[in-house]
Every structure is written in C-alpha cells, then in structure tokens.
Amino acid sequence: MLLGNRAVNGAATQLSTHSESWSAEKAIDSNRGLQQLNTGCSSTRDENNPWWRLDLRDIYRVREVVITNRNDCCAERINGAEIHIGNSLENNGNNNPLCAVIPAIPAGESYNYSCDGMEGRYVNLIIPGDKKILTLCEVEVYGEVPCLKRSFVRMQFNSRADLTDPSMKENVLKQLGSALADRGLTDVTLRWSQTPKQVIQKANADKRRCGKGK
Predict the structure, then answer these.
(1) Claim to verify: residue 69 and residue 14 sit in the same structural domain
(2) d(CA 29, CA 140)
(3) Apex 21 CA angle, 19 and 25, nearest 5
(4) Which of 12, 132, 174, 204 has minimal Cβ neighbours within 10 Å of its Cβ?
C-alpha cells in the first residue's frame, strides 16, 4: 500500500551548507518554503558536483519523488539535477541507480518524478558540474516498505574454535555482519537457524607394518 511522505521521518545531509538557515533538514520539514524562502529551504555553497542525501532509515520501494524548486531568483540552478536511489554509500550515495534527471522546474513549482518501485534506503540529488549550487525547498518521497527477504546460507568454518559456545557464535555473526556492511548491506538481521556442529576430520595414518629383521 502506498502511504504518506516517507521523507519526514528521515535524516538529511548535504555536501556543504550555505549558512545555518539553509541546512539539509529544511528540505524535509514539510514546509515547501515558498513564503519563507530563507528559512524553509536547503542550499549548498558554490561547489563542484553538489549533492544532498536523504536517509530513509529503512529500505523502501520508492514510487515517486516530488521536488519543490525555489520561488525567487535562480530557479534554473536545479536544471540537470539527478535523482538516485539505492542502498550504497559509495561516493556518498551518488553512485546508486538513477531514477530521473530534472530538466527544469519553474520557480515555486513542485514536480513529480516516477521511480517505478526502485528499492533503496538513500535518496540522493546531485547536480553534475563545476561551480553549482543545489537548493531544495522540499523533497517528498512516496513508497512502501518491501517484503522482508529471508535467505538461508550453509557455511563451513575451518576453525579450532568451539562454535557451540554462545559467545563465539555471536562473534561470528558480528564479523559476518561487518563484512556485509562493507558491501552496502546494512539492513540485515543475522541469526543461527541451527546450532553449529563440530566435525572432526581424522588424518589418514600410514598403517604399514614393519617386518621383524632376521
């Protein structure tokens, strides 16, 4: 089911901040900033490839992203901005799959961009190019939580450690979770479906018998 604006419960950050009143969170404060531009919008400083990122705090199937442009001068600054959605923080999330490119949004207008159920925790806006300023008066994200995916993995460890020890089992799960997080998989719950069993492998012994000397 498609529910309300997911952005309002998220956390926002950006490459830089023009000043305290233009913080990243201003783009998800449910105020489109049309009457109070200086206190209702986010803005970076003059940057190369400026970006803004929203952490939805969970993985969603994103159906639609709504962007509201500034209502004063410089409405053209948003031209060419890209919307990316995914689960990776590589390159600050800007390498995630592309949902849409914004050709232009008239001053004070809100335009909708369909993302066709792309799954992701992070929503990024970036304007490629040198000496750009990214200003966003509101970013709204609509979608639903995807169904939980359950996978079973059978593993064999070459270890002398006793994996029946609860503390050792917990340590193995932590190490596995850390390895998955390094690959961008952070929303993962790991648990043992069965108690690990220790298998002792016996080396083949040379059982040749020595004959008695004469």
Answers:
(1) yes
(2) 10
(3) 105
(4) 204
* Predicted pLDDT at 27: 95
Flag whether 209 is in a domain: no
Backbone angles phi, psi at 210, to 5 degrees: -90, 135
> Any alpha helices (H) in 26-126, and if so which ranges?
37-40
Structural domains counted in the chain: 2
Taking only the tens place, the pLDDT of each residue in 155-172 is: 776 777 777 788 887 888
Residue 121 lies in a domain: yes
Domain that holds residue 93: 6-144
pTM of the model: 0.69
Question: What is d(CA 103, CA 76) in angstroms, rounded to the nearest whole number?
Answer: 9
pLDDT mean over 16-41: 83
pLDDT given for residue 55 in this prediction: 97
Counted residue by residue, the chain has a size of 214
- What CA–CA distance (Å, rounded) separates 62 from 42? 22
Quote the tokens at residue 188.
């993962």
Model confidence at 214, pLDDT cuts 50, 70, 90, reads very low
Q: What is the DSSP string of 57-85?
A: EEEEEEEEEEEE--SSS-GGGGTTEEEEE
Indicate whether 70 and 47 sit together in one domain: yes
Q: Verify that 138 and 165 share a domain, yes or no.
A: no
Q: Whole-number mean pLDDT of the chain?
A: 85
User: What pLDDT digit, counting tens, does each position of 187-203 carry?
Assistant: 677 887 777 776 666 55
